[in-house]
Design brief:
The structure is a homotetramer of 322-residue chains. The first copy, chain A, is of the alpha/beta class and 322 residues long. Chain A has 2 domains: 138 residues, Rossmann fold; 157 residues, Dihydrodipicolinate Reductase, domain 2 (2-Layer Sandwich). Helix content of chain A is 26%, strand content 22%. Chains A, B, C, D: Its main location: cytoplasm.
Chain lengths: 322, 322, 322, 322
């Protein structure tokens, strides 16, 4: 198989960096160029110094569209549409957008959650990559929604690492503030609820329950932890079985029979789930790396699917473990 | 005022150490002795080296009961009763127990949550100091319970620092495991629910709702964060007003009109609350230091109340802030 | 004793906040006003929310000079002189400057390191408060310098918490960057070396050795750790004795006979030293809190000395311990 | 190429776990079995839950020697010799020992630092894998030693993550103690100095300088940072050039022209160096992951070399980056 000529737009940020870390060693990808206005003409190791010894690539501010077979867009939310208008890629260029701009499936984009939309992704040439919290929450709940088990409000608490807020400086990302600290934001109103509910409606058109989501800022850099629960009349065994069945072909989503913790998933493309029944509730925990399964890793998983490669290609990552 | 002759039983652990840090500079306390079987005859600065320059005290394994006006029991849960049986203090010795053993108000103990039981504590000579999670959750919810606002299940998520698990070594307190990590334990079954419900029944004998509590192990050493919510028909303003009224005489519990974060309360005896209405729910956040308002600080607050001192005495602590 | 009318200039930053945390409960201080241009008319709890329930003070942008008995200047380095030119305080107003601007003893300022300059501080009305690294390093080495023991280069490594870099946002203070990380800056050229050598010359006019200082950015918020060593022909006992003698009247500097760690000093005004002889070298470790003994705590210690109060007044702080 | 039948002895610990994480996806390795007495018959995902979905292997307590082409020994220091006596592997089995037991090159072991001993490793069937601090320090200094530049004592400070101390519980690995903390241990006497000096003697038989090494316990889980310096008469450019020449064929050791930080190397097999001249000293910084280049990663690098594979095989790891 020849290598796919691939471009990265917005290569200086966190998700751009993760794409680079993964694509440099992807056996079927050739990085044609990495775009960044701010870092133009600088080596990418200037922004991503951990890549020393792995690449001699230099950022460019020129967007070449011709001959590009796949392009990853890692632009700030809201800027993708105007970028694509200014830089029209060929009809058959695979576009994978990491922003929130097309997650409503507008403009012909497919919602890139492989566990739900595998077939659509196989046939897509425009993929909207899911949000990080959205990925963790949907994978925790999708089998229950599909089964029609949810007949009351779903209660969700989610904790995200600081990289979810990106590279830009902010008071809530100041080390002196965030270390040893804990806080809530966007209570019940997080923007990812929109794409979550869209998927739930797709799985069960009659779904109409509230998703009460408490998002926390965690005192760590990578990872998202989700706890979700709702009243459930079935047994734990029944639930575990249904989840195993639902995810039996999933490349990266696993149901653990042991208690889980966040670091099991950090620096991998996995989503690790654990299921419990207690006090009449079905509780599902999920752990992902917000920058991988929650962003750049899933983007490459989508690339693999869309171009017909095994989903694991370039994504068998060593977890941080400790 | 002469100084109260005070003993500390179990002075080598975390809560024992915090008692020492506070009592050494308490203007109306004289530490008669500090008991520890394991550290017998060693200077207390051996176990608590930060106290260098502040005390020359040495641990003893002899329990003197005579002449002791107040005694703090910082023994492992389950050991207090047999200790008191073996070492009977005088009727008028003030006993403040930090364990869970008498929080059911057995054996004449008063439940030492000053915001609820001020009068009883004023007249008590046996005080059962509340649990850390129990303190954070009760202070978040007491005014709502008292008002009779809770007519459905209460959803609570709580995150505790590692010091809540004490000095003993455990896999889940290993630095390599816990750093950058996050996990759940005792889902819906945390032992503090018992004392929480006991207080709620006291505030509203008809209270009969579920308290669904998700306890998390946080990636920090000190502090407890609580988020609690339930369906509420009133307005945010009404709720804020009721909470301000309820806590208007509280020495350490405050309602913040700003968003709060955990470190505001760390290394203080405060409980800082913030209140929000969203999606038909009343949401209350509370932040405390698990070793202070959640343990040793509250124990000294109880001492102050029981012996007729201003509640702040010896407890005007500088927060860690950063 | 009546209370000293005190002003804080630059009250919204980290050291300004620490001054407030301490002065609010200082028994002989009345805070006349807290100045901040950026926070004018906002409650100080807006910038320092942990102070809820302790103060109703509001920031002002008006500099009142009349009737002020003591003023703390917590302005950015380089701005103090022009501030004082614009706002001339009375001759007998005690000025304590936390910036680096007058640490060269210009304009009549005394260098405010109490362990060295006690008498001068007692008689001063202008005090230049030492730098944080400078405090840790000088207290580690002063007795050795005074004894004339140092006849070769001194090797120092020092690690600082993130609060040393202040409130402003910077790439090296980004939580995602700094967490779990470690790096060097200003190798051998740190600006504090100037005041360190000035003191060493004061203690021993013939002192002329190099101080090779490796400053590290640590992965914690508060504290400075110093390791210093140089060839030494005497014994460990001799050194310990000399240090104990040198610091026998010091209010906050202690020599520990046990191994020390940084957190013993965090959130206190202490400097904790430990001394070791190994491989022909005398090694001294010192641990301080960079914002307290390294800044605001020492400033208040200087205030106490200058106005004739016991040095501990308002400074008996509970360490964070964990 | 057929796959090498490989065994791991001591697979339940930290370095055993890292070996597993890497070998499972090594294209030329087949894991014959993973030995652990304590975890016998349990799935390896029980000890290493992050490996869910990647392996169905189960620990065994049976040591099979026949047919094993390569064996990794990840036993506690001091236990390897008696293990090998009890379990004699065939003459041509490649033995890679991660303990300190044969780093003195006894019993026919080659010291497995590829940057220095490449040829010997290519021909070895017994390899003693270097210590973590030893790797970081030797790679920082080897080119200078080889050039004969070091004519005075070398001053080294090194900071290690908590995983260097292994899985067992200890007071200094307690999360409540170590978080936000910093301390020294084994000052000037660290056991790795022995193998460091052995290599320096190999590079320059006349080398006879002191290596004054201050080892710190860092407040992070993974990584080792080294700062080393000594008087140097040449220029920075000359030094950089010599280092680039020395490491021009090194697979994982790189000289960065930018300032470096620890996390650039974390979760990779790289050693990243930076060189500076200041105050008459040549300063070299090095950053490695203590469990990878400092242990299991280097062990696999040695395997690759010994069996004739490209050094990168199975070791192109995504850094944690944040």
């Amino acid at each position: 198989m020849t290598k796919i000529k691939t471009a990265i737009i917005g290569g200086a940020g966190y998700t751009g960096g993760e794409l680079l870390r993964l694509l440099i060693h992807h056996p079927h990808v050739e990085i044609a160029y990495v775009h960044s206005n701010s870092q133009k003409d600088k080596p990418i190791t200037h922004s991503h110094p951990d890549l020393i010894g792995e690449t001699e690539l230099v950022f460019t501010d020129i967007v070449q569209t011709e001959g590009i077979q796949a392009v990853f867009l890692a632009l700030p939310h809201g800027e993708t549409k105007s970028f694509l208008d200014k830089n029209p890629f060929a009809e058959d260029t695979l576009i994978i957008d990491l922003s929130a701009d097309f997650r409503d499936k507008s403009h012909g984009f497919v919602y890139g959650l492989p566990e739900i939309n595998l077939e659509a992704i196989q046939n897509a040439n425009k993929i909207a990559n899911p949000g990080c919290f959205a990925t963790g929450i949907q994978l925790a709940l999708a089998p229950s929604i599909a089964k029609g088990w949810v007949k009351d409000a779903i209660h969700v608490s989610g904790i995200t690492g600081s990289t979810g807020a990106g590279k830009k400086l902010a008071d809530t990302s100041h080390f002196s503030y965030r270390t040893g600290n804990f806080s809530v934001y966007k209570l019940f109103t997080h923007q990812h609820l929109k794409e979550i509910k869209q998927t739930f409606k797709q799985l069960d058109p009659s779904f109409n329950q509230e998703v009460l989501f408490v998002p926390y800022r965690g005192n760590f850099t990578r990872g998202i932890w989700i706890t979700a629960y709702f009243p459930f009349e079935g047994s734990e065994e029944e639930a575990v079985k249904a989840y195993q069945e639902f995810y039996k072909d999933a490349a990266f989503t696993f149901i653990s029979s042991q208690d889980i913790d966040l670091k099991q998933a950090v620096n991998t493309n996995k989503c690790i789930l654990h299921i419990q029944k207690e006090a009449g509730m079905l509780i599902i925990y999920s752990a992902i790396d917000n920058l991988l399964k929650g962003a750049s890793g899933q983007a490459i998983q989508n690339l693999n699917i869309a171009i017909g490669l095994p989903q694991h290609t370039g994504l068998q990552l060593k977890s941080i473990a400790f």
